[in-house]
Amino acid sequence: MNxxxxxxxxxxxxxxxxPGDKSISHRAVMLGALSEGTTHVKGFLNGADCLSTIGCxxxxxxxxxxxxxxxxxxxxxxxxxxxxxxxxTLDCGNSGTTxxxxxxxxxxxxxxxxxxGDESIQKRPMKRIMKPLGEMGADxxxxxxxxxxxxxxxxxxxxxxxxxxxxxxxxxxxxILLAGLxxxxxxxxxxxxxxxxxxxxxxxxxxxxxxxxxxxxxRAEISIEHCDKLVAPKEVLEIPGDISSxxxxxxxxxxxxxxxxxxxxVGINPTRDGIIEAYLSMGADxxxxxxxxxxxxxxxxxxxxxxxxxxxxxxxxxLIPRLIDELPVIAAVAAGASGKTYIRDAAxxxxxxxxxxxxxxxxxxxxxxxxxxxxxxxxxxxxxxxLSLNSAEIDTHKDHRIAMTFAVLALAGSGSxxxxxxxxxxxxxxxxxxxxxxxxx
Length: 441
Ligand code: S3P
Hints:
By secondary structure, the chain is α/β, with parallel strands linked by helices.
């Protein structure tokens, strides 16, 4: 399906909530399945990725009930040893999180599994989990020998290791920690900078022994002890709104003059709020209101007001893992800021659902913004308040974040600007009601 988005001449105003956090939704299903007792979840993200996780755990013998609107989930956990072999191949769809995290769990089972996903997932690098899990004793083979899915996992007893990950990746870290639940002794991951820590928070809440410390050189060290049991939470697990989805409205409000938007009940976990820090450094007016704790996660309402005179910034280093999924939309906002924005240390963007460096630079060029690729990021030449956009057709490469980014950027065009998104329905991966919600504002 293609979709055309026009520029709008009036400000975006109002308030909205966004669907539940994708990362937390995946983990709620996985850890709920491995817990003893029943986990009740509210605010579950009913996007295709999280539904893939539900599908996989149902195929591993877990009884999971979904409400009609698919935002409430009841998981009848069977404990750490309660999974059954799937008779067939587990389908992870488009979801890297499902593929990598479930691999950590399946490595330690007393049965074999085979998993795969769509065309995109079959091109994404899996060596990054195969290597550390292999060091723990796991037996994982890439069926086609290209270090990508399909993967065959021969479950085996595992042992703890200390692994220095070359990338700050929560998927890699979480795969190792989940395997570490089963492994003998202590399992430790050292990452170049702390990546999102939802696994650590939820594991701790369910009774696992997890510790994190910052090393003197800035790296993060996360350890987990062998675990005998996880216990389902007594209270309903309320998943906050996804800051990665809120990012599109925050960005839209910064691109469209006069806008004033409040996004309620958003997760502002400090390992995820890098976009706010980046926008503040560009001069934006964004505040957190009603800060509170929801279960083990920080939550707030995010109030964003259009700010004249936004300027370019340098975005890199340990900020990158805190805003990795938001970099495409930050690049779009950079187009409307004055001066250049440099995105560095972000080579990981090349191995997301699409090569987000190449795809963004290409798309920005099509709408008339000068941008260039670098080895580990991109440089965007902002047009400031003179921002004007060409009509164009954007190839989203079926990447949900690219589609939503160009939908938002299109709003900054004049009424006659038409940006057509190819395969616009890929937003179903993380935000099925995105176009409706954007329309409401
Ligand atoms: C995720 C981690 C990130 C992120 C992805 C979700 C997670 O990937 O891009 O959308 O839930 O752990 P990496 O850990 O590979 O950077």
